[in-house]
Amino acid sequence: MAGLFQRTTKRSGANVGLTIDGEAIEAQAGDLLITAILLHRTSLRRFEFGDGQRAGFCMMAACQDCWVRLADGRRVRACSTLVAPGMAVLIEGDGVD
Amino acid sequence: MTERLRVDVAIVGGGIAGCAAAVALREAGLTVALLEKALCGAGASGVNFGGVRQQGRNLAELPLARRARPLWDQLNERLGEDVEFEASGHLKLARSDGETAQLERHARDVAEHGLRLELLGAAALRAELPWLGHDVVGASLCAEDGHANPRLVGPAFARLARRLGADVREHAAVLSAMRGGDEFETRTADLAVHSRYLVNCAGIGAGRIAAAFGEDVPLQPLVPNMLVTEPLPFFISRSIGVCGGGIYLRQIARGNAILGGGGGWGDADSNHSRPLTGSSLAAMANAIAIVPALAGAHVIRSWTGIDGKMPDLIPVIGRSRTTPNLIHAFGFSGHGFQLGPVVGEIIAELVTQGRSVSPLEPFSIDRFANAAPASQPIDVGIEE
Amino acid sequence: MTEPIVVIVGAGPAGVRAAEALAHAGLRPIVLDEAARPGGQIYRQPPGASGRVSTDIYGFDAKKATAIHRVLSDHTDRIDHRPDTLVWNVFGPKLDLLTADGYREQPFDHLILATGAMDRVLPFPGWTLPGVFTLGGAQVALKAQGVSIGRRVALVGAGPLLPLVTHQYAKAGVSVVAALDVTAFGSKLAQAPRMLASAGTLAKGLWYTARNRLRRLDVRYGVRSIRVEGDGRVEALRWRDAAGHEHRVDCDAVGASFGLRPEAQLADLAGCRFVFDVDARQWMPERSAEGRSSVPGIYLAGDGARIGGADVAELQGRRTALALLEDLGRAVDRRELLRLDRGLARQARFRRALDAAYPYPSHLLDAVGDDEIVCRCEGITVGALRQAAHERDAREINRTKAFTRIGMGRCQGRVCGEAAAELLARACDSDLERVGRLRGQAPVKPIPIVVGSGA
Description:
Helix content of chain B: 25-40%
Largest interface: A-C, 41 and 54 residues
Number of strands of chain B: 22
CATH topology of the largest domain in chain B: FAD/NAD(P)-binding domain
Number of helices of chain C: 13
Radius of gyration of chain B: 21 Å
Distance between the termini of chain C: 36 Å
Distance between the termini of chain B: 10 Å
Structural class of chain B: alpha+beta
Largest sheet of chain C: 5 strands, parallel
Shape of chain C: globular
Number of strands of chain C: 24
CATH superfamily of the largest domain in chain B: FAD/NAD(P)-binding domain
CATH class of the largest domain in chain B: Alpha Beta
Strand content of chain C: 15-25%
Oligomer: heterotrimer
Shape of chain B: globular
Strand order of the largest sheet of chain C: 3-2-1-7-21
Helix content of chain C: 25-40%
């Protein structure tokens, strides 16, 4: 699936495997979670108070738009969290534990 | 140039009690001026937990709380706006056999006042509320209790009072109050209000007003330490408290969980207050002990304010001991929110009839007649 | 006599130069930074070893960036640098921290707040669609991650950041379908002579603009309004030019913001007095020319106090450190003071010209409809703000917040606060200063609830 973002620069870094809603994707060491997700998707989460999705905004940990839910119950701010192997992101599946 | 007002009743304090009193007095046909030092409803009325609760009170308050309860059902219609009252039920948790016994005792006591509580054992609790933590061994449910939005209630009463013709003045801190002849003169920086009756519901400032009439009371600041989380999927279906009162929490329909527990820092003279980190961290830990599913949440904001408390943790409501036509209603000790609408009616009864249909003896200011003053008496007034 | 505890919050240009100056004077400052690596936003470093060349990332500023990056690691014997540390509250002489090891408390005797800035935002139709980022955010994506926010990108701004990011995106091979300046070209021409106060910076700006023209990019000035369209994500940008004609361009991402605003929440919690700047239409913490706030022992430097840019931040960092040293009774080099003050005065002249060249485009709010979202965290509309103003006597921004929830979301009013105040002033027919500013509340950023349990 084509995401919002595209890589413009070749960067060194090992592959890092994550899943988004169960689907496996490849990211690169040094990717922020927002980068990894938005290279493959067009949003990060469902907006709580209306139709539509959110995909981040400020990229500098200020606007708090890019919070993402992980399958292990944690919520992380995608623009200030580095990818780690095995991270399981939930975009569509945002229910209660 | 001082503006002079002449009214039947001057009310000091624009919290829920004062604004509801202004409404009731206007409905009784009296002229009213209300003086609020900042913005109506933004004091203790606006910063509390928002619990609309009959369960767990000092029994002296129960007749008032019972009388207040039906007012909450009609509040939106009366005020002309949605104050977000939910009869979610209030669940008071026991985490030991001793606490369970406390709950059983309380249930018997309140039954005599017509309040029905349902005692739940661990199995029944887990069946209905599987998200409760493992320490909980039982609970008492008051199904008709609930919560509302404290930021909205006081201001809505103030607007209704204005619509009914009360002269409501904000940013009007009272500098002096005195009685001469058979009238009161209450002054702010720009106003002199002459009135037949004076109502003192000035919250943490009420002690100064009382002292101005020779009634020192041991009113102390009570600074509730409040936190709120980010919006979360809704699942905490009841308003929650615990025996001992150390933690209380509720989740609003939008998803934020509101937590309270412990005290913040407050200075009554400057009206400054701040949450204390120790209290906030403890409330966070206590919250996830009771509701482990909150563990993934973030706290996004904290706040506090200054309420007034009496040593016996019940308010002063009633006529002045020293001065005719002076009515007191203050010192709600952290649980005035649910009572606010009925306190307004009671104040109006005291003004118009000299007595109330509700039993007010436990709240008499007389009980502090021999108490030492809580703080230095403040100057009675600034002379022109 | 024990050494005073001096804490600096922020490891951008201001914080780093302040730490350096204090270290050279023999102190051992603690530098707390939310990020993993120093540089702030302007010299933000990609995480880990990226294999990228610094001129590719920072262009003309590569030397300055590298110099800033080295300072803390060059002084590890005297500067206690603690990255990945969020300062979320200050009360009395104590900071509340969130670290990788959970909650920590940090007492201080003297505090320098160098907390930087974020983009200044105004709402426009479609601004909450996936694919809309701030202009600064668009730049961070490229700088820190080597990614573009889209394949066909429209950029909108009201400051020198616009030609820079346009150039950076174009240079990276991204299709920039429009570069729209919502301020007038004329204001830049008028200010050009005054901008010679910082000739180097002016030259850079002209160079970016010229390069963008050579690339035949659609660069426009005086743009009157913008609207993003799309079903679930950005698909097109509509905009009205200076003459009032409407245009539409297909795009899949928009980078739009209008200047910068100081991140001053900690200054607020620390009790610093704030002043309203009429020209900038912004509140900022009161700061003396030397860097002192209104609270003894608390100092302010860089964009976190007042927007001035990276060069000013470096000078202010150093100048503020010297003020602190003077307050400690230490000797300072008076010639250094003079040099710094002269440099700052020159920069201030440039800054005033820049602010006049790019005035805050509050005109973008002129036609904003009731249905537009003003608080994006909570999804609250402009209509709700107006209703509260007209029907519920909300004439002050904190009262508006209490009634409408504007500013109660996770960002605590960072994004919406200034726009909400502008809209409130208009709704009440009041002036902007009178409606006030949103008051800060701890934590300044969300903290995990588990921190209370020692996690």
